[in-house]
Write a structure and sequence with these properties.
4 helices; alpha+beta; elongated; Conserved Hypothetical Protein Mth637, Chain: A
Amino acid sequence: MARRTLNELKWHPGKSLEGVEITYLHRGAPGDRVTVDASELVALERSFFVVAGSRGDVRIPYHRIIEIRKDGEVIWKPKSDRHALHGDMKEVDRAIRGGGGRTHIEVQVTPNSRKTALTGVDPWRGRLNIEVREKPVSGRANREVINLFARLLGIPAGEVAITSGAGARQKTVTSGAREGQGGPGRPPAWPMMLGKEYQ
């Protein structure tokens, strides 16, 4: 995975991050892509890496990485093409709306599943399909939904809440994510997240 590749370059004797460029999916950027030089890396965390930005440090989830190059040569790409959306991006946009400096995401949740993942889009309901392993007992499935979106957006779980439908399968998940991390009017990299399982 991308994190392992970056950590190996950073810490393995005889290797370095010199000449390394990281390209990641960033909706709204030219071509929906941003490339940063590894010299801009501030930290490599468990689920995201941190780069220095003009407005402060920015956290980028590893699953948004499209490729890693060293001296112009591609040294890492995702094994599978997760860039093809299992559904129309217009339908994704229908499920996500901004307001009051927050992002509201309409979801359809299937609890007691074999995996926890964002699995697609329901074009009829205008909702993202979510599967979670937990049963809908004592709020466990809701907590797993919150943790899933925190990982997807690369933000603390405390910045995510279920603001509607806590006792139903159709829910509204509200995030305080900043622009570029799923903030209002700028949804995160949903195509790369589809089907990705989380522990």
